[in-house]
Amino acid sequence: MMNYYGSMMGWGGAWGGFGALMFLFWVGLFVLVVLGIIYLWQQITKK
Length: 47
Fold this sequence. Notes:
This protein is mainly α. It has 2 helices and no strands.
């Protein structure tokens, strides 16, 4: 486990930056989906 973690750390800043970008992308996508569902739910319940 430590060897795997060490090799991941060895990838350097590029891999970390890519991981952060992917994380932000998925978080943003999740937030958009949640907001969309809330918006649609409000539209449905208004009627």
